[in-house]
Amino acid sequence: MREVNRNLFRYARSVGSQLPLVGAVPAERADAARNREKILKAAAQLMAEHGPEGLAMDDVAALAGVGVGTIYRRFGDRAGLAQALLDRAEQRFQAGFLHGPPPLGPGAPADQRLRAFLHAYVDRLTDEAPLLLIAETNTPMARFTNGAYALHHAHLMGLIAELRPDADAVYLADALLAPLAAAVFLHQRAGHRMHPERIKAGIDGLLIGQLDRLS
Q: pTM for this one?
């Protein structure tokens, strides 16, 4: 297991340079870029006014002044549109844990970086959970098949492998990300009336418990 995790650590450390930031838009024609911005502006307005239920493709198309087929061709489905609305925030988040100041970014011990990542994710959920819920639940495996989850998982895997070389870093990275699913967060907030700081404290308990059992 130790040799396996050394290899995982090297792999995870290289992921940041191998995967582009999620949301990086390739060069496109000026008219296509204008349509993209109109669609995203309309989608953001409907989300602000009506919540996730307002993010209907027909309504977005009408407000943006484009055909609904244009949205489907451009974004694929409702989840793809939600993901596009999240792109800028995701890019900022990725830049923070890949290149930003410690403890979220490089330069702090692995345990501090793990905790900082999980707390920063809760902060994201506080603002973005309704959109993330659409992006993560449109299909049964939607959360796990986008580049953002792959990068988050590889980042945690690398930190876990650094901290506990004998641990199953692949499994534990999934285990630590599981409580950060948008549906879980929204249930905790609405169903249990949990404040984000209480959720962070609970995640700290999970993290400490996992690492203590592995030591």
A: 0.81
